[in-house]
């Protein structure tokens, strides 16, 4: 059975190693293992990035840098459709349609929303039960609350059948499935398939300074992450936990953690860190060079994105016409 795969990545912050091990490595593997009948749609989700305020110039630059990073890591735009989310207007059109049938209670249960709400509650000294109606929620933005509906729109617009997800994104996919099923029942149709998860193989790369936290490219503390543009000297200074180091080493060597542990079992902590640093340097060097080459020819990169976006818009317009007809807009 042919697959239609959709996956997105935000252009926020400096691209870091966790992006590759958590998302891009799996995109490359999907591309390598796909058949001629499969469709792979990989999006730089710049609309989602608007939930974190930044200057227009910075967002444009980071979006282009992410495109260069994705290609440099091995995603071939001639085999996969790499595009900017904002270049396809139907994403936000479908967001509105889905938002009109999605209960607030579903969104209020989302773990990421509850986490942000809890943080806000602590800031304002609120300790009682928190929900969208709580005083603590008044300082949060509506885009953050409806973020999961846009994620569902991203997926359902293309009638995606399979979605690569890590364990921290399963809940968002489950919501997309619930919304798809609710839409189909409401409008007595089978328009949207229920997308299945493709659980990513790589372990999450945790924060370097605090191995209990996931590595984040938006983390303000640069010592907690490894950027793909980092120099080899800075890489060798990081001090994460042993398990996290082994996970990074195994993922870069494309082997199992158990095999990596056996290979490095006689190493001291210092030797382990050196081995991981060397693996990172060997990976980062070629990727950094290719990124620099691509960004030096930004016009070619923009042209590639525009060509792919024209193809993606063709798919989106056809599907949107079906959706609009289904709900009575056409």
TrEMBL record:
Coiled coil: none annotated. It is an enzyme of class 6 (ligase). One of its GO terms (biological process) is mitochondrial tryptophanyl-tRNA aminoacylation. It holds the Pfam family tRNA-synt_1b. One of its GO terms (cellular component) is mitochondrial matrix. Residues 210-225 have a biased composition (Basic and acidic residues). Belongs to the class-I aminoacyl-tRNA synthetase family. NCBIfam families: trpS. PANTHER family: TRYPTOPHAN--TRNA LIGASE, MITOCHONDRIAL. This is tryptophan--tRNA ligase. It comes from Linderina pennispora.
């Amino acid at each position: 059975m042919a697959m239609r795969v959709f996956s997105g990545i935000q252009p926020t912050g400096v691209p870091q190693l966790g992006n590759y091990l958590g998302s891009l490595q799996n995109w490359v593997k999907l591309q390598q293992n796909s058949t001629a009948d499969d469709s792979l749609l990989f999006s730089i989700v710049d609309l989602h990035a608007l939930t974190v305020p930044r200057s227009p110039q910075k967002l444009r630059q980071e979006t282009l840098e992410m495109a260069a990073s994705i290609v440099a890591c091995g995603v071939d735009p001639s085999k996969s459709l790499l595009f900017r989310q904002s270049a396809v207007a139907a994403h936000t059109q479908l967001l509105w349609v889905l938002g009109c049938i999605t209960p607030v209670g579903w969104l209020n249960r989302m773990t990421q929303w509850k986490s942000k709400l809890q943080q806000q509650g602590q800031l304002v000294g609120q300790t009682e039960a928190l929900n969208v109606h709580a005083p603590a929620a008044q300082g949060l933005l509506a885009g953050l609350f409806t973020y999961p509906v846009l994620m569902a729109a991203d997926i359902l617009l293309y009638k995606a059948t399979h979605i690569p997800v890590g364990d921290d994104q399963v809940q968002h996919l489950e919501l997309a499935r619930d919304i798809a099923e609710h839409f189909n029942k409401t409008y007595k149709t089978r328009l949207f398939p229920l997308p299945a998860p493709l659980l990513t193989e790589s372990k999450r790369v945790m924060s370097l300074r605090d191995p209990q936290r996931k590595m984040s490219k938006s983390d303000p503390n640069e010592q907690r992450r490894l950027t793909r543009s980092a120099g080899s000297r800075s890489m060798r200074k990081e001090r994460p936990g042993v398990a996290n180091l082994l996970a990074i080493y195994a993922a870069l060597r494309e082997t199992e953690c158990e095999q990596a542990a056996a290979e490095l079992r006689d190493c001291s902590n210092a030797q382990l860190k050196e081995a991981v640093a060397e693996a990172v340097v060997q990976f980062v060097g070629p990727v950094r060079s290719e990124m620099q080459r691509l960004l030096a020819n930004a016009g070619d990169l923009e042209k590639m994105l525009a060509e792919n976006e024209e193809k993606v818009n063709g798919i989106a317009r056809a599907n949107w016409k079906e959706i609009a007809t289904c709900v009575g807009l056409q």
